[in-house]
Amino acid sequence: MKTMTYRQLGGACDKEFHANTFDEIEAMSKSHGMEMFQKKDKAHLVAMHKMKDLMESSDSNAMREWLQAKRKEFNALPERG
Question: How confident is the model at residue 55, as a pLDDT?
Fold first, then answer.
């Protein structure tokens, strides 16, 4: 099992996610983001706006490259019991 924080994933807080795969971490991150969006948490909304800008970037590879970098970061993390 590996751990990443929401901040490591481009978010606005240090909430930790624990998972065996990056896909699981990604799903947890999205769920937390949706929860914070519904609560209209200002810091999270700012972070989400930055992610939206990345997704809508004129560089069509920007989001894919960012996601690949995060996946690589996850894979390099040590396993924790």
Answer: 83
Q: What is the 3-state secondary structure (H, E, C) of the chain?
A: CEEEECCCCCCCCCCEEEECCHHHHHHHHHHHHHHHHHCCCHHHHHHHHHHHHHHCCCCCCHHHHHHHHHHHHHHHCCCCC
Amino acid at 34: M
Domain boundaries, given as residue ranges, for the chain: 2-76
Q: Residue 41 pairs with which residues in a beta bridge?
A: none
Residue tagged 């690589």 (tokens): 72
Provide the whole-model pTM.
Answer: 0.86
CA distance to 27, 40, 49, 81, per residue, from 35 (Å):
12, 9, 15, 28
**Single-letter amino acid, residue 42:** K
